[in-house]
Amino acid sequence: MKESVVSAKKPIKTVIGPIHPALKEPIKFIFEIDGEKVIKVDLAPGHNHRGLEWMATRRNAVQTLYVSERICGICSISHSIAYCRAIEQAADIEVPVRADYLRTIFAEMERIHSHLLWAGVAALELGFDTLFYKAWEVREDLMDLLEYLTGNRVNYGVLQIGGVRRDITPDQHARINKSLLNYTILFDELYDMFLEDTVLRMRCRDTGVLTPEDALKLCTVGPVIRASGIATDVRQDFPYCAYGDLDIKAITPEALAGEVHGDVFDRIIVRLLEVKQSIEIIQQSMKKMPIGPLTNFPKLMVLLNHIKQAEGEGIGRHEAPRGEVFHYIRLAANQESPLVWKVKASTYSNAMSWVKMLEGEQIADIPIIVASVDPCISCTDRVAMVDKGRTSIFTQDDLRRLSRKKTERIRQGLK
Fold first, then answer.
1. Mean pLDDT on 354-382
2. The model's pTM
3. Are 33 and 17 in contact (CB under 8 A)?
């Protein structure tokens, strides 16, 4: 439901950021505002460089693996899978089948906790605090399960070039199956709370629309492009790890709604359905996973020596929770360190879609539209509005308050 807006005499310029990075770089939004309506949007990324790719050239390939995990705390296994696959292609390293299944299981567990984290943040931006706490309560059990299997809640350190470092033993199956059963039951509850709530639907439907044409033109990835009706997914289109042996199908909003709007609500639909899909993928993997070795290089020095003798290029692609991550590696003979390491995270691919999503929307919609991409940047620090030399400051709390007021107006209108 769209609200009428009061137009100002002249558009004013609004700047959000630069803001401190949550995981990668800060980013600055530059808006032209007419009353409460966003007229024009521009982005200014690249305010900070962490130097991770430079670090790789001064560490051996195995040490760099643990640097790759720290590109993103929420997608740490996603980047380590892509990094390992790039090294394995460049050095012609084969991965045992069991290790591929284990990588798939850990990756899908990470997808569940990432999507639930996003769902909680989205609910908070809209003013649904109870829903925020419920989503994060459900996510907590998955974090405990990851810690049980890998030893860590974040940055798991479970992968190795050529395989994995930890197995899932038979005595751990009971705990995994119990958690998956609980998630299957809780999914129905979260489904009702998110998708059957009239206020939430009215607040998000037709807000932040990204058409299929724009989604393709801007090269968006992950839930963002799938929510616009484009059924693309690296796991489906270019199967890797164990995904080629499993039943994988890209999820679009038609699976639930029968139609595509490409809006914030459709992005909620896609992510919630992907939580259910990840549960099913893990269950399939647990049943099909064969017995076998975890790596073809049990001794670390043998692995390092193999990489040192290798020469060539490799790419690693992985469908992370936010979309495809892409790693490029170049190895040089007689050198343990990668000669070149380049990374493209999903936020880089999705950032420009904000321009199309935000133009024509209200200031109160900025927080949820920005959040709907699930970006790897922190919440908005402050907003400075400049009109004829006069400057007023809007804090993060002010933005959130505007967003919640709009939700409350819709709620009151239904009574």
1. 78
2. 0.87
3. no
